[in-house]
Amino acid sequence: MARSRKPLAEPAALEITRPRLPWWTLLPLWAKVILAPVALVWSAAWLMIRAARVAVRYPVAVVVGLLGWSGYVQLGPWWLLGISAVVVGGLGVWAWRDSSSFTRFCWCEIRTEWRRVVVYAWQWRTVMRLSDLTKSVRGAEFRPKLGRVRSDGWRDRVRVRMVKGQAPEQWELRASGLAHAFGASSCRVRVRKPGRLELDLVHRDPLVRPVGVPELPPVEATVDLKRLVIGVAETGRSLTLRLQGNHVLVVGSTGAGKGSVMWSLIWALAPAIKSGLVRLVGIDPKGGMELGQAPELFDRVVYSNGGEAVELLEQLAEQVKERAGKYRGWLRSWSPKSGDPFTLLVVDELADVIAYQSDKNLRERAARAVQTIASQGRAPGFAVLGLVQDPRKEVVSFRHLFGTKLALRLDEPAQVDMVLGEGVRQRGATAHEISENTPGVVWVKVDGRKEPVRARAFHVTDADLDRLVSYVTGREAVQAEVLDFPDRVRRIEGGAA
Ligand SMILES: Nc1ncnc2c1ncn2[C@@H]1O[C@H](COP(=O)(O)OP(=O)(O)OP(=O)(O)O)[C@@H](O)[C@H]1O
To answer: Which positions does UniProt annotate for ATP binding (predicted)?
Structure first.
């Protein structure tokens, strides 16, 4: 039987892409000869730039490597070992005698270089691809460039050059994934300049420990009302608040530490309160649970949200107008030479006064007065410190009048947006994630500054408040006498207990 020679199936067309040769291979030989020296110089310059970049990014590794190599060549292995032991010993003594300067100038540098190589440079390409932050156009891949890395111990600051056409919002959406990929607990995205970002990859919270109040300054110390130190930022710098020409809104759930922000501010004002330069006026609708701890510091304090509180607010609103009239054509804004005291109005639960008051008339009068003080009081030397538990619309409708907003621990992400404004949470201000174990930790947003700041207010204890009262009044604080509970024997002897 004749066997058919026909194949079972037609072979498939060969489907391979034609190899793309570099453009210069297509040049004629004479052009290659002419261009060879130019290419050589260009390659040498490129190599030198790469080497310089490595030296800038890894100075410790490069210097140690070069010194080690030249020591080995010139002196031999035993000398090199001896010198290395002496250097390591010297560094150990430095770390032991002055750990802060050692950490700052030496350990930080070593850690930075190590983390750059091991964590970021090593995984960069994979993480960028898996996070969908690369772009492919006609077979060419465009990848964000890893820039300078700086490791501060508790966070790594990683600079990035974005791919053209990319937006910071794309990075903000992927922040959580990036944090997990690089083994961090959170990632914040900051825009440095067009096309350049800085990622804050946070590993641990530097604010877990409470921060005690600083020593009270001498009574003659001058107080800068534009820079009052009320705590410590996570970067280790002081957290300052501006009172002159400003109003401050503090929002936090119950037990979040609103009291510590308020008392830290009053602590910073102490010399000015003593000298009469600053006058405190307070409203505490919770019956004095907060301001009642140190009423001696206040010029006037009301412990309700009723008629008395509303009258006080209206008096202040009237004073704002009077002062504005007095300063007209004389002073542009309040200064100590006006002879008037700078007035700080502290309202412990602002919502109780302007929103939850059941009497509609009182509520509206209070809201009108607070609005007058907040909108017209900056220049004539009035500031409002409003503390709020519940950032609902009725309260936060006043938000735009407060130049500085502080969000302590909040219950939901939406509340963060209500307090700090849209987009601030995406930039990292996750006040709803503050732990219940760290009262006093706060996100601060100042109008006109894009980046929010995370910090912890000083922890002002009852003993500190007693010291503050003695400092301002010059009298010893009166301590309540704690009596022993009568024991059983005395009760029987004396009849009824
Ligand atoms: N900055 C701080 N550092 C350490 N502990 C703090 C700090 N602030 C407050 N605390 C502690 O947290 C607890 C609650 O603080 P605080 O009463 O100030 O909260 P609050 O927000 O005013 O609460 P509430 O709304 O119920 O009045 C207190 O036990 C206090 O000692």
So the answer is: 252-259
ipTM: 0.96
Residue 411 has which token pair? 């219950």
Ligand 1 atom at shortest distance from the alpha carbon of 456: 1
Both 220 and 293 in a single domain? Answer: yes
Task: Give the Å distances, CA to CA, from 110 to 63, 148, 338.
Answer: 12, 14, 55
- Residue pair 240/380 in contact (Cβ under 8 Å)? The answer is no
- Specify if 484 maps to a domain: no
Instruction: Give the Cα separation of 63 and 423 in Å (integer).
Output: 44
The whole-model pTM stands at 0.81
- 176 in a domain, yes or no? yes
Same-domain pairing of 195 and 130: yes
Query: Does residue 465 line the site of ligand 1, with CB under 6 A?
Result: no
Q: Please indicate whether residue 255, judged by its CB atom, sits closer than 6 Å to ligand 1.
A: yes
Q: What are the pLDDT digits (tens) for 1-55?
A: 445 565 566 666 666 666 677 888 888 889 989 999 999 999 999 999 999 999 9
Residue closest via CA to ligand 1's atom 30 equals: 257
- 484: CA distance to ligand 1 center in Å? 28
CB of 440 sitting under 6 A from ligand 1: yes
Parallel, antiparallel, or unpaired for β 453-459 and 441-446? antiparallel
What gap in Å lies between CA 386 and CA 394, rounded to an integer?
14
Indicate whether 119 and 193 sit together in one domain: yes
Verify that 179 and 255 share a domain, yes or no. Answer: no
Tokens read off for 356: 């939850």
State if residue 389 touches ligand 1 by the CB under 6 angstroms criterion.
yes
Task: Report how far residue 195's alpha carbon sits from residue 178's, in angstroms, rounded to the nearest whole number.
Answer: 18
Going by the annotation, the residues of the binding site for ATP are 252-259
